[in-house]
Write a structure and sequence with these properties.
The chain is α/β, with parallel strands linked by helices. The chain has helices at residues 14-28, 41-45, 66-78, 101-112, 132-145, and strands at residues 3-9, 32-36, 51-57, 85-92, 116-117, 122-125. The protein is 40% helix and 22% strand. Strands 1, 2, 3, 4, 5 and 6 form a six-stranded parallel beta sheet that branches. Helix 1 (14-28) runs parallel beside helix 5. The protein binds flavin mononucleotide. Flavin mononucleotide binds at residues 10-15, 57-62, 65, 91-93, 96, 98-101, 126.
Length: 149
Amino acid sequence: MAEIGIFVGTVYGNSLLVAEEAQRILSEQGHQSTVFEEPSLQDWQRYDGLYTLIVTSTTGQGDLPDNIRSLFSALQDAGWQPTMRYGLIALGDSSYERFCQAGKQFDALLQEQGASRIGELLTIDATEHPEPEMIAIPWLEAWASSLSD
Ligand SMILES: Cc1cc2nc3c(=O)[nH]c(=O)nc-3n(C[C@H](O)[C@H](O)[C@H](O)COP(=O)(O)O)c2cc1C
């Protein structure tokens, strides 16, 4: 059984729906997870050496949703985190110039800090997929089965 912290960045709730699907799939595969809707650095640091899954949309013009912005800033100051393992699902809309920028920014930061990404970054385009869960479910099933205890 792996332990996963699911960190949500959302404006309208789509990312939260995906995070709830993630929790269901992880639980079906025997893992234990917690969803953080107002994530803090302290929540994040609990998962060092375990796993995190970030599910975030992009808002404004390539901006992070308000509810995850303070975590991102705190992480920028937190520095090196080589024992953190994470997965990333980015929701966005390709009709905007900075497609999935918030998720991409998170990925770039964690890579710079030496964290290990498990699986590919999943981008979900609202223009093509009005129901983001449909794209997320197969990715999540594969992601969950790649976690070790
Ligand atoms: C005002 C507004 C601005 C947005 N800006 C972007 C953007 O810059 N880049 C992008 O990829 N998607 C952008 N989107 C699309 C959202 O990320 C997408 O609809 C996503 O599914 C919303 O998920 P949420 O409900 O979790 O916030 C924007 C949507 C709105 C309504």
